[in-house]
Write a structure and sequence with these properties.
Layout (H helix, E strand, L loop, with lengths): L14 E5 L5 E10 L23 E6 L7 E4 L5 E2 L1
Antiparallel strand pairs: 1-2, 1-5, 2-3, 3-4
Amino acid sequence: DPPWRTDRHDFLQKKVKVTIDDGSELIGKILGWIADTDVDKEGEPGFVSESTGKPACLFHVKFGSSNTIDSQDYEEYELEFI
């Protein structure tokens, strides 16, 4: 996998709300991202969207220590900016 980028994106350090599988909502902060043009060491896309089947940006969200989930990765459409 390509390394997480930690600069050069407007979403970095933004607070977001996400809804997890059990329906509860978590608040977190975007700390990294993978561009849709990033590739891994084999030259394959860094991330391929499950919804489109095409390379896409992926955002790494860190949640507070009081949450059951420490961090998770999301596509833009899964994030609600607050």
